[in-house]
Design goal:
Shape: globular
CATH class: Alpha Beta
CATH superfamily: Response regulator
Number of domains: 1
Mean pLDDT: 86
Number of strands: 5
Helix content: 25-40%
CATH topology: Rossmann fold
Radius of gyration: 17 Å
């Protein structure tokens, strides 16, 4: 995970104007929601990469993973004037306008661990550290083998949209 984030941050840093070179780059990662341990490794990767690259880093997330719950957080980051917003989007389209507002202020927008499917023009880059077309089938096969291919399996997700 750390290698993917370092590569993504390095790529992203090449897109940020040189005017930011005087101050440490500020990066905020907006998770889907608080209290979700899934994001711990992603956050840890960002922290390690920022420590190595000399960036300021902060993780923030809404209490719930609703389609619009990240919008006030994005607006706050625009007001703060961060350099990079990395976001695990709760919706592929609910945040289009606010992400465009961020980009209009010169903020680099990265979709992380999910994309704005059908709305890719509202972000600068996408970082997917996992090939979901391989992970899903592998997980189902593993679960099947654990229950001897008998019974039912329930698959839960953080949100229905992203």
């Amino acid at each position: 995970m750390k290698k993917f984030l370092l590569a993504g941050l390095a790529l992203g840093l090449t897109m940020v104007p040189s005017a930011f070179a005087q101050d440490p780059m500020s990066i905020v990662y907006i998770g889907k929601n608080t209290g979700n341990p899934y994001f711990d490794s992603i956050t840890g990767g960002f922290q390690d990469a920022c420590k190595e690259l000399g960036c300021e880093f902060e993780f923030v997330a809404p209490a719930t993973a609703e389609a619009t719950s990240q919008i006030p957080i994005i607006e706050a980051q625009i007001q703060r004037g961060v350099d990079v917003i990395a976001i695990a989007p709760n919706s592929p389209d609910a945040m289009n306008q606010v992400l465009d507002d961020a980009r209009g202020k010169g903020i680099l927008v990265l979709a992380v661990n999910g994309d704005l499917v059908g709305n890719e023009s509202h972000r600068d880059a996408n970082i997917l550290p996992v090939d979901f077309t391989k992970t899903g089938p592998n997980q189902v096969e593993l679960m099947g083998s654990l229950i001897d291919y008998k019974g039912d399996i329930a698959i839960l997700s953080a949100t229905t949209e992203a």
